[in-house]
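RECORD TYPE: protein structure
NAME: RecA family profile 1 domain-containing protein
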Amino acid sequence: MWVHHRTFRRKWVRKDPNSPPTPPLAQLPLSLGGLASSSLYLHSEPPYPFRRFEQLSKAFYLSYPQLFDSVQCVRNNVLVQELDSADHLFDVVFKLDSALAKESRKTMPIKVLVIDSIAALFRSEFDNNPFDLKRRANLFFKISSTLKFVAKKYGVAVLVTNQVVDVMRSGDLNGLRIGNYDSLYSSGRRVCPALGISWANCVNSRLFCL
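PREDICTED:
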């Protein structure tokens, strides 16, 4: 599912490992509902489903043979970068301004950026103590503010996937309300977005997808 909007967004999603979240739809011209652009996919949960992506690329090419010379042309417009830590994500995001400046001069500049998923990086690297929680929150704010900056400057649609966690008791967590999740259920269980109030404060728009 794609949201074509030039703001920083998050998608609450229950992951399907058989479906890569970066279809080549952004490559379509504006007249066909696309962005006439390339996509950058940053993934933190290997392995990337290349086999499924190959199938999607072939199907996409067969649907629009007048737009592309080959299936390889479709694949070339989806750039993939693996992330191995939260600090690695910060380094990549920090370099986006200069990278997108170069891309903006190309025929198919990057107009879609996907980070999948932010929770996989932060849930495993930080302990539940004041020092780590403060450091984690600082990284959240630095990453989100940079993403919002490049989204506005270069007209890039940014989509960040999160994970969900079970709500163990009725009411809000520790008296805090993390978004409007009163009716969010997955597999019959009540859930809420991961990463808590710090990340919730960084998000402009939310989608919950099953």
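COMMENT: The CA atoms of residues 94 and 146 lie 7 Å apart.
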